[in-house]
Specification:
The chain is α+β, with helices and mostly antiparallel strands. Among the domains are: about 25-130, Sandwich (Immunoglobulin-like), CATH 2.60.40; about 140-230, Immunoglobulin-like (Sandwich). Helices cover about 20% and strands about 40% of the residues. The chain has 3 helices and 17 strands. It has helices at about 1-25, 220-230, 245-275, and strands at about 30, 35, 40-45, 50-60, 70-75, 80, 85-90, 95-100, 110-115, 120-130, 140, 145-155, 160-165, 175-180, 185-190, 200-205, 215-220.
Amino acid sequence: MGSLQKTAVCLLFLSIFSRASNSTLATFVCSDVKTEYYKPAAISCIGSKNITNVIVKRCENCNKQNSCLETVINTWRGNNSSEKGRIRLVLQHNVSEVHIQEVKATDQGGYKWYLYSDAGVGDGCATLEITAPEIEPSLTWNGRKLACLSPTGHPQRQLHWFDDHGTNLTGSASLVSEEVEGGLTSLTSTLHETPILTASKYCCTVLYDVHTKRNKTKCLSTHKAVTDYPHFTSTPDPEIPKTMKEHVPIILVPIILVLCCFAAVLYYKCCQRAKPEGIFRPIKDPPSNFETT
């Protein structure tokens, strides 16, 4: 009788252990996704049996431990969506999908799944990669410093400076980053070369991926910059229009001359009238009583 009890207990333990083993051996397949900014994305994990509950956490990287801190989905607590429905769970039988509308920079990274199904419990991780626009940089020079603008792109891209000898001048530059729509950034790097630009050519390189070294480069010849820059081109001073005060003396000169002539004529006429009449009268013959015999 005692041996039968021992056998029953052993069978019970084996049954419990078998169920526990089955629950931990459940497997799920999660697929990585690559999309563009502002486009929708769907990350999925598929199991062999019907999935009942899902917990999804956002991670910095699937391979980085303790980086999954933000929970975006938790069906145990009734949270089937987050960010006002922009991120939501679609659960159908053995397929669980997380749909993300208008992806942005902060959506990129790993998504850790904790799945509960009729086959047991399992986990998986999928990576969402977002491709940002890769716009060629533009260079400007104001006579004292060079500026390189990368208008829109992924916040992790880098700007580097090189001269015509391949010397890295990035350490002599200052960088300003401004956030634009969707988590993208605008980068402006300014190269300060004082007192003058000594190299014949300067190049600005936008490094989009440090692993693949994917980049775009724009160069500027300092000789052409000096030729094109307005500060170094001599132009005649613009003619300043004469004001009314400058015109007045020129206009008064002929008026004064006319008045002087008119005054001279009047003076001459007045002098003529003031002379005695006898001077102009003819001399008559003497009276008869002065006649001699």
